[in-house]
Request: fold
Amino acid sequence: MSLTTMTTPPPDPAAELASPPPSGGHLPGPALFVGRAFRSLWSNGKARIGIVILTVMILVAIFAPWLAPHSPTSTSFKPYQGPSSSNWFGTTGNGQDVFSQLLYGARVSLLVGLTAGAVATFVAVTVGLVSGYRPGFVDEVLSFVTNLALVIPGVPLMIILAAYIPNRSVWTIVLVVAFTSWATGARVIRSQAATLRSREFVTSAVFSGEGLFRIVFREILPNMTSLVAGSFFGAATAAVMAEASLEFLGLGNPSTVSWGTILYYAEQQNSLLTGQWVLVFAPGLAIALLATSFTLINFGVDVLSNPRLRER
Amino acid sequence: MALLQATDVNVTYQPGRGAGVWAVRDVSFSLEEGEFVGLVGESGCGKSTLGYALTRMLQPPARLDKGVIDFAGVDLSSLDGEQLRHQRREGIALVLQSGMNALNPVRSVGQHFRDILRAHARDGEDTSPAHAHDRGAEMLASVDLEPSVLGSYPHELSGGMRQRVSIALALSLDPRLIVFDEPTTALDVIVQGAVMQTIKTLQRERGFTAILISHDLGVVLDATDRVMVMYAGRIVEDQPSAEMLSGQHHPYTEALLGCYADPRADEIELGGIPGSPPDLSLPQAGCSFSPRCPLAVEVCRDVDPPLMPLGAGRAACHVRAGQVTEQRDDAHV
Amino acid sequence: MSEDRPTDDGPVPAGATPVNRSAVAPMEIRGVSKVFTRRGRGREKLVAVDDVSFTIPPGAAIGLVGASGSGKSTLAGMITGSLRPTSGSIRFGDIEVGGLRGSGLRDFHSRVQMVFQDPYGALNPLHTVEYTVVRPLQNFLRLSATEARDRAHEILQTVGLTPTDQYAAKLPHQLSGGQRQRVVIARALACDPELIVADEPVSMLDVSLRAGVLRLLTDLREQRGLSLLYITHDLLSARVATDEILVLNKGRVVERGVTKDVLQHPTDSYTVQLLDAIATPAR
Reply:
């Protein structure tokens, strides 16, 4: 039948039958959950690649002092040099080693990406949960604020904020990025929280005498972990790109060593014209790779919340 | 000549990780033209899976492992793609549990009829909207709906009406076999009776062959000519419906019958069945019902009984239909 | 592989200590109505419950019967304090249920509990059985972790989920429908309530499992002197579980009386419709 498409697959008998008791005895709920979550992620091909890339970058960032052949800031080399045996990726216009800068730069990008992503997600979860769980005045106010934050264009706002804040540092950037990217997550989390609120196990928790905080954080939030994780990786991706953009535009602290500042100086010193395309492509590729790793991991997070996808 | 002959149908669910579930095990039966058969069982017995297998609607991870499904001389299990679509036009229709899920929410009822007629039109057939309208009105009348329903969207109709629309759509291609999968379960209890009555009347008047899949033995015995009881993926009993209310039957059937009673009776004894159905991801030894069966004897645990003649039909029970004498087995208590 | 001991229809051991029932209050519902106003164009009013009055004496088993849309679930919501009546009063002893909020409502829940319809939805998929049963013990009875754990195992024993150690560690997806419903009942029992409101507790269970759960409810009533408000559209289970029933049609009580009498001699056409809707294999 062409039109009676089967939207509901045949009932999975495995889900209906009582399965044998778990071997290994009494595992606490949360530990079991995290373990299972990581295993699910790892079993997903795309997520596994993302995890590997991210791990490599984190290791590079941590061990940069040991991996980098030179100090990233010392201007002891001849400027505008192409790749050579001592400077694998050449030198900048200030006589600094590009390769070392690249390795140290991972620190800033990772820090900003993960921190800004975390802060944005934290705000999104708080706002989303509160407004999703309690319909009424609070919800109206928070929804309005969320919609306002969604409507204002993020990048121009970021630029303005960054330009006017007197103290230029990495933390400025973290705050600015987090401030402009929490709204999308908040919206999604709110609607999920609103759905979960009317689930019977939440009503059941109320009847068990659970208070507001326990219901929100022990009943609803744990059932939203894949959504929150997905939101986090999405925000982290946006944060990495935003940070690089801000620094490229010169709105960061020019003395920081990061992939964005490498691009800034490359632009300032017309690296493409001087034939030093490595200064453009290397950091650009690194930024793209980091952002991609987050996105790949997000594929796995999707699978976490939809067990049917796991079976393919 | 049997319209539908299923031989050794087996379906497994094979997820990417973990054990596979053997959901339908060695099912064989035949259906005559014009018969109205009920397929009854509880959660996890495999009845819906079997229904989907017969209509070739299984989706991964479910797989038709083995088996021949002979429909009017054609082996459905070997068909694919365009051949299958053609067969659907000629032969089999499926009515699902929830009208809301089966109908496209953004298309009106009339558009549904147009879609289905156009999709399955043979060369030279009239596919004009006018023809679809007439045919649609005709079909809706047969399920006691006004032609004005053609202009409605699914969300504007009540649950009972949506289910009637599903039935009308199924009828519009004049199928030889219609499989109803729990057609009234999602409906309000009072509407259930009316829709079931419509199905019964239609089957009698138009004479199509029908399979009614349901967990409700009462509904099935009321509507059908013949009942097949499923347990743990197998057919354990196959009887004319009229014979089910008396005489001896498979112990599971008898236990199931004991779970129903007339609320108006003076004394009510409501039965239950202790225990749970077996885990079909594990290999099965012997009769699957034996752990819960009050009549079980030694051979029941070792040998899986085939369907053997019992009364006017067949049952898969060593004690009732086989040659084993009934003994109280102390070890079972 | 099934469990060695049948649990879905097993005997219910009498292990509970009967609570002092002299303090148990009747639940009195007087002239209660609930009108929902739909926001948006037209401001349509939906009368879900229309002037319903009845009493649930201590230890009684009363049935609320009707099809969907009859108002029975709305009425249940008002009786358990989840919804406020538009008019009328619901008194539990000297407490006006409609006015309860905050901690008053919490205390009320320790006396009036609910058993839900959907065993799959009423349990948080991430919490073990033990957690679900322990929480009301910690919240209402203020038991320590060890005390609560022991008491939880006693309750699991009472509802027939034995061996309790095995079941306590399980997650909902590892249980069958009947077992989940027993966990839901265990949770409701934990704080030793006086009244249990059961909303279609067996409708989503296979027929073979229903007798066991209904028998459990009846046994618990007898052992503990609980009152039971049993809400359903299924007259057969109402017959088994209740002594008196009220038939609701579009929010109004159209018939009431001793269950057996109403079913054998219905006076209202709606009741007759409900009876006819049951296709019973008459043996």
User: Anything to note?
Assistant: The interface with chain C takes residues 42-43, 188-190, 192-193, 196, 215-219, 221-222, 244-246, 255-257, 259-264, 266, 268, 270-279, 282, 291-292 of chain B (CB under 8 Å). Chain B is about 30% helix and 25% strand.
